[in-house]
Amino acid sequence: MATSILPQHEPVVPQLIPVFLLNLKISPEPSTIYKDSVGDRVLNLANVVDGQAIPINNSLGLKFELSSITGFDDITETVSLGISKLDCKLYGKTPGGSGVQIKYPGLIKLLEPTVNVLMNKSTLATFEESYVTCNPTIVADSSLEPEYKWVQSENLFGKGRFIRDDSGTLHVQYYIYIVR
Question: Do the beta carbons of residue 114 and residue 108 sit within 8 Å?
């Protein structure tokens, strides 16, 4: 490759701007679908029975809000690596009643604070001590409110954690960011 076309310096590091918090209630506890000791994999299913996308005030004035989120997540653990890969599909409604689908891949590193929450040995893994990520894409029906249409044309990133509420029910929470 000709060196004349290579960049002379690295670009400024992109800024991540938080735009909404995704809070998902999982019930019952994730269940094992199969264990494949030869393939070093375990498939677990998490049912999302309720959730919401809560807007976060941000410098771009972007807003996104959903309620009554349901869906499921196929979570494939690679035991020898201590990771789980996510394949999540969610469905919810905007305040105006528009139907929305959120799909995301993601990665969980099974670090001790996260495992302790999943095993019900503790109630909280902080965002800082967790490696729980997602990369959501969002599609909606044609009645989507104009102020929410931006979500369909952005690359979204999520930084998450697991937490248990006062009744012991498992939740996963993600701060969802856009890149600028």
Answer: yes
Q: What's the farthest any 2 CA atoms get from each other in the chain? A: 62
User: How far is it, in rounded angstroms, from Cα 92 to Cα 99?
Assistant: 6
How are beta strands 170-179 and 137-140 bridged, if at all? unpaired
Structure-derived torsion over alpha carbons of residues 109, 112, 115, 119, reported in degrees to the nearest 10: 170
Listed in sequence order, the DSSP H helices in the chain are 112-118
Which ranges in 30-123 belong to alpha helices (H)? 112-118
Which tokens is 166 given? 């006062």
Question: Residue 152: pLDDT above 90?
Answer: yes
Contact 97, 75 (CB under 8 A): no
Residue 136 has a pLDDT of: 98
Among residues 140, 134, 56, the alpha carbon closest in space to that of 93 is found at 140
> Is the pLDDT score of 114 beyond 70?
yes
Residue 92: closest CA among 22, 167, 31? 22
61: Cβ contacts below 8 Å, ≥ 6 apart:
none
* Strand ranges for 56-169 from DSSP E: 67-78, 83-93, 99-109, 131-134, 137-140, 156-164
Whether 3 has a pLDDT exceeding 90, the answer reads no
pLDDT at 37: 85
